[in-house]
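Hello again,

I reread your note about wanting to compare the complex against the isolated chains. To keep things tidy I'm splitting this into two emails, and this first one only covers the full assembly. Below are the input lines as submitted, including protein chains and any nucleic acid or small-molecule components. They are followed by the predicted structure of everything together. The single-chain runs will come separately.
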Amino acid sequence: MSHFLSPIFASGFFESEAVHIALGVGTLVAVVTGVVGVFTVMRGQSFAGEAFGDLGTTGGAGAYFVGVGPLWGFVLGNVIAAGAMEAIGVQRVRGRDLATGIVLGAGLGLAALFLHLYTTGHSTTGATVTILFGSVFAISSTTVPLIVLLGAIVLAITLTIYRPLLLSSVNAEMASARGIPVRLIGVLYLLALALAAALAAITIGTILSTALIVGPAASALRLTRRPLTALVVAAGIGIGAMWLGIVLAYDSYYWPPHGTIWPVSFFVVTLVFVTYLLSGLPEASRRRAERTPSESSAARPATAS
Amino acid sequence: MNEAPHKAPPATPGQEILQVDGVSVRLSGRTILDHVSFHIAPGQFTGLIGSNGAGKTTLFRVILGLQAASAGRVLFGGPAHPREHVRRHRLVGYVPQKFLFDPDVPLRARDLVGLGIDAHRLGVPRPSRSRRALVEEMLHAVDAERFADTRVGKLSGGEQQRILIAHALIARPRLLLLDEPLANLDLGSAQEVVALLARITREQEVAVLISAHEINPLLPVMDRIVYLAAGRAVSGSTEEVVRPDVLSELYGRHVDVLHVHGRVLIVAGAGEDADLAGHEGVFPGAGVLL
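Full-complex prediction:
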């Protein structure tokens, strides 16, 4: 068995505790980001997702600076950012991008300061790379309970407000007319998105976290017509990219140049991107198939239509 | 005020499904609605006619409770049991002004209709036979079975209107509000939607309040008309309202009502109405532009 699979799973893959944690956390985070991401794409809030990724940088840098785990920094940074975006007016469609952009700029300035102070004091740039690009193999087992708790909170929020959230994401006016508190739903959703982005950041880094939120969801929207199926498909794509990414990263130790592991984040994001490209194929081929007969019928002399 | 004399017997007092009572709305110094009063009896088909900016959407927002009135009130269930705000969301179905669904939204037509049942409830919808049957029945009522499994974003304008109507109707409201449902529809689709609404009014015993800037497509089916101009309103039967003297008083300038080939054209008088010169003496959208 292991003999046949050895070209795929390099030696020690199934024994490594780091791999176990990476696979477990990766799966949970893929489910959470997939479910939340479908609504992010539907609501056109990808830019807010991006902003959480970037402001997580501020939180993560601050966490290193004061000496606590980066996940606390991601969570705190993103929740504060969500509050700020809500206060400035993220709920108004027109104000959305502007408000997010203003918060973003201020936050990244702080991140630069924290990282400068930390790396100057510790003469290392490891923190910067970990925050920006993640290290799913370096997640300590003591962080896992917090990750599970946060994941459960995000899923609980999203699935509890599923129906009102779905209608207000499709059309806020129709939702208001039904007596749905659209603003409250929006705030709860923003909170779920903030926590999901924090989880994505601990896994594949703050810079790339948006890719995990938006990518699988955008692919899922192309592949299915049903809302609940879209959540499942998005989670599935995320899990697939995560698992394959972890395997490839582990194997890459034996790739040239020998002795270094390629970043998991690189593989995950690349796989997500490739999936997105591939997800456009069914629609494109369907359109081509539709065009051919309609052209031939147009060529025929006009009959009763 | 400006209420045309009722020649047709009004519905039994106390039975009105909706009573708009002297509603005014002022937003940042501008008067959007000025003492608007009218009522709607069960099953009545009422057209809310007015050009763009006359205050139609604001009036809808007041009725829906999304916009507070500066003065006046909106009562549901009639004066015998005046219930402000009470059960509003159950009594009133709403079809918003034309908007485009994003083609990527993962929502089939039947999913959107289903959301009309229970979108206000928490949790994920549990499929059940009765739920499916209800959705199917409503799709049939609006003649939308053909495209029930198509994404809402890929439907034509007329098809989207049908689905939005089904979404609003499935909760069994007593009153259906439709904001400019005929705008941007071609003549054929507009006539189909009007015929559908007239049929549904009878079959589902629901009253309809439909806004439009164009009076003619609604003439054959309207029981009553609420004519809105610059925030002021007159209401009554079509014969009572669409008259030169009534509309001249509403507009505050001389207005002619012409009947041409079964159509109504509402035309502003010449002379002091120099400000209307750009519109060639015709109130925009009031009939002649069709």
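For quick reference: The two ends of chain B are 31 Å apart (CA to CA).

B.
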